[in-house]
Amino acid sequence: MQLRLASRVLSLSSLLCACVGDDDGGGASATVTVGITTVMPGSGNSTVQDLLPTEGDGGSDGSGSTDDGVGGTTEAVKLDLGSSADFGSTFDAGCEYIDVLFVVDISASMNEEKANLDANFPGFVSVLDAYIADPNTEAVGYRLGVTNSSIVANKDGKSSMGLDGALFDGNNLFDDDCELGGKLWIDGPDPAVASTFSCLAPDPKSSCNLCTDLGRERPLDAIEMFLAKMAPGGVNEGFYRGDASLLVIVLLTDEDDDVGNTTTTPAATKAALDEFTGGEQRYVVVTIAGPQAAPCDSAFGSADAAPTLHAFTSMVPNGLMGDICQGDLAQALDQALTLIQLSCDTLPPPVG
Fold it and tell me: Which of 95, 168, 191, 292 is the most exposed place for a label (fewest CB within 10 A)?
């Protein structure tokens, strides 16, 4: 395991060095040392460099923050490879499975974003397939599930076409079962992964015909309900494969968590994930949403500021914030894949 991890980190270093050019402004060093830094950009200017550690302790001042190039600072979180990251001793780390949940905003304003996700998804799958096929990894498979970020019952009495954290089965008023064959998720590698996902992801709505798909996005509640429904007898039972798995949650929304209706907090949702997976290093959160402090406009249309989702993602050691206003999800998905692969390679055993 020690040699496998060293090989993967060196391979990642080579990949990133090939992608990062000289930076006249004194950008991050193109070498991978201990850990990987992921940043929470709000400007849409993030690059592969954002996944590289900067000098010192994660920032130019040693504080874990980096200069954003426009006179401010960007808070960063660090993926810690653990006490054996210097490869001085053998340790048991790495995942056999990658279990990925997509939590998708179903409001009408998301049509362009979902179309772009669909366009970029075959490339996402091909990278996962190559990772599984790599003899230097121990991963043997991945699985994909979809739910939405809406909850049916809201404090104002309005009902939504939410799934309350349940995995989408492909059946609603508009679609068939997406050829899932009675399952609630897609197992890969498989030639049909991309096409099945393209059926599931654009319209994961419940069949409630008196409900709406407008607003009231509550992704944090949806995450907690998703976890609860993986208990024995729950609708999501079996999706997450436990100790051998890295759990990945991808949030895609142009709104923030609805503070007027939510029943949780970023800290509570993180605590639920920590407990469920057996440690904060055993899952990844990728949030693709609006900026932290102000709304934005892009080729996708407008997106609200998302301070709550930024706060949640910044709490997660293996967290990545993508800017939905870049107008193309390719870069965010590429960076997510880099983080997912490294997190799988370094997955520690559950705590306790």
Answer: 191
pLDDT single digits (tens) 10-20? 344 333 433 33
pTM of the model: 0.78
Which residues neighbour 46 within 8 Å (Cβ) at sequence distance 6 or greater? 39, 322, 323, 331, 335
Q: What is the CATH number of the domain that holds 138?
A: 3.40.50.410
Mean pLDDT of 104-127: 92
Q: Which domain holds residue 269?
A: 97-345
Question: pLDDT tens, 18-33?
Answer: 333 344 433 332 222 2
- Diameter over CA atoms, the chain: 61
Q: DSSP secondary structure string, 13-35?
A: HHHHHHH----TTT---S---SS
Q: Write the DSSP string, 214-251.
A: SS-B-HHHHHHHHHHTTSTTSTTTTSS-GGGEEEEEEE
pLDDT score recorded for residue 45: 34
6, 150: one domain? no
Percent pLDDT > 90 in the chain is 53
Percent helix, strand, coil in the chain (nearest 5)?
A: 30, 20, 50
Structure tokens at 63: 């504080």
Return d(Cα 348, Cα 193) in angstroms, integer. Answer: 28
Strands 296-298 and 245-252, bridge-based pairing:
unpaired
Claim to verify: residue 252 and residue 192 sit in the same structural domain:
yes
Domain co-membership, 73 together with 113: no
The CA distance from 331 to 140, in Å, is: 26
